[in-house]
Design a protein that fits this description.
CATH class of the largest domain: Alpha Beta
CATH architecture of the largest domain: 3-Layer(aba) Sandwich
Order of helices and strands: HHHHHHHEHEHEHEHEHEHEEH
Bound molecules: guanosine-5'-triphosphate, magnesium ion
Number of domains: 3
Helix content: 40-55%
Radius of gyration: 29 Å
CATH topology of the largest domain: Rossmann fold
Number of helices: 14
Length: 391
């Protein structure tokens, strides 16, 4: 009898040990799905595909699964969601492109200014060079007058000194005191940004590049494809977004009302607690009144939901002075707060920076220096002038 009780006791003990062991081993596996659920609800499933756990882990998110598991699962996702380049030092990295496209300008100016005798003909040539760079008539005359005065007073042809003078005068013209920061923070709601401009200037590309900049700065972003003119436009934007795990709000119907898509995007951004909502719009010529009205409506409708913090006008630097007309009309319709000057890698007409700021008081905030995903840099006056005069 005693023996039977002992056997029963041993069996019970073994069963108990087995059950305990099972829970102990499973404990590590039961928890992660719960945590994963918490993680996705925090970030929103669309915001970051679930396979992207490795990157979240790199961000110091402790809510994801155990490291070995995360690594094993993250591997196939790596090519899908990219890590954008840091923003700091971008202009320095892209400087070579600016130098390459502008060094004719810088070199010829310096050569002209370093001559033994700067007569009226030389001053005319200097003026012509500045006008060719799209500096605009008024700033050109002003700059030439200032330089004339300094060269006469200081009586120098020393290239280094002349270069310093030119550097100082160009910097003053571009105005380093302007606030070029983007409004990407708003209290208790997403900051809303509208991106506008004529056809093909690089709006969608800029929205895509900028989404990467914001992701690199740990901001959550929602994109709105308010270019409903072509189905391909929404696809183009979605592709940019998905490369960095950013959701895009778009319409399934081609030709849908862009204002309602923009409104939806802002609503979605508010709901998923994004830091920034960026709305891409269709290209439109500034002289097409109905299209400009449509743009005005997009902004007004968005304003029913949220303040618009930034209206970025994208200008193609290669179109030169025409950019000025575009800027004037767009400003009247949607109150532009910043300029993105694209394609500066392919032109020596960066002088438009000065012309636009002068005429409209709107600062150039970003410059595009190539088609690559990270070829967008914050505009920095000093570095810009440095690059113009290098050579
Ligand atoms: N070289 C160079 N190309 C650029 C730059 N920015 C944009 N592009 C190119 O310009 C072309 C047009 O860019 P998109 O972003 O589609 O222009 P968009 O303004 O959205 O065009 P629409 O929506 O049709 O009005 C693309 O081939 C881009 O790669 C830049 O800074 N440098
Ligand atoms: Mg576009």
């Amino acid at each position: 009898m005693d023996f039977d009780v002992l056997i029963l006791f041993i069996i019970l003990a073994l069963v108990l040990a087995g059950v305990l062991g099972f829970f102990l081993v499973q404990g590590g596996r039961i928890l992660p799905p719960e945590k994963r659920e918490k993680y996705t609800s925090q970030r929103d499933e669309d915001d970051l595909p679930p396979e992207d756990e490795k990157e979240a882990e790199e961000d110091g998110d402790t809510l994801v699964a155990a490291p070995e598991e995360a690594e094993a699962e993250a591997e196939p996702a790596e090519p899908e969601v990219e890590t954008p380049e840091p923003v700091a030092g971008r202009l320095a990295r892209l400087r070579a492109r600016l130098v390459k496209s502008n060094n004719v300008f810088g070199k010829s100016l310096l050569a002209l200014l370093s001559q033994d005798k700067i007569d009226d003909d030389v001053w005319d040539e200097i003026e012509e060079t500045l006008l060719m760079a799209d500096l605009g008539t008024e700033p050109t005359l002003e700059l030439v007058d200032r330089l004339k005065e300094r060269v006469t007073v200081e009586g120098t042809q020393d290239t280094a000194k002349v270069k310093d003078m030119l550097h100082e005068e160009l910097t003053a013209l571009i105005d380093p005191s302007l606030d070029r920061r983007l409004s990407v923070t708003a209290e208790g709601r997403p900051a809303v940004m509208l991106v506008v401009g004529v056809n093909g200037v690089g709006k969608t590309t800029t929205v895509g590049k900028l989404a990467r900049v914001l992701v690199a700065e740990d901001k959550s972003v929602t994109l709105g494809a308010a270019d409903t003119f072509r189905a391909a436009a929404a696809e183009q934007l979605t592709t940019w977004g998905s490369r960095v795990g950013v959701p895009t709000v778009k319409s399934d119907t081609e030709g849908a009302d862009p204002a309602s898509v923009a409104f939806e995007a802002v609503s979605e951004g508010i709901e998923n607690e994004s830091d920034v909502v960026m709305i891409d719009t269709a290209g439109r010529l500034q002289n097409k009144a109905n299209l400009m009205d449509e743009l005005g409506k997009v902004k007004r409708v968005v304003e029913k939901k949220s303040e618009v913090d930034e209206v970025l006008l994208v200008l193609d630097a290669t179109t030169g002075q025409n950019g000025l007309n575009q800027a004037k009309v767009f400003s009247e319709v949607v109150d532009v707060s910043g300029i993105v000057l694209t394609k500066l890698d392919g032109t020596a007409r960066g002088g438009i920076v000065v012309a636009i700021q002068r005429q409209l008081g709107v600062p150039v905030k970003l410059i595009g220096l190539g088609e690559g995903a990270d070829d967008l840099a914050p505009f920095e006056t000093e570095k810009f002038v440095d690059a113009l005069l290098e050579g």
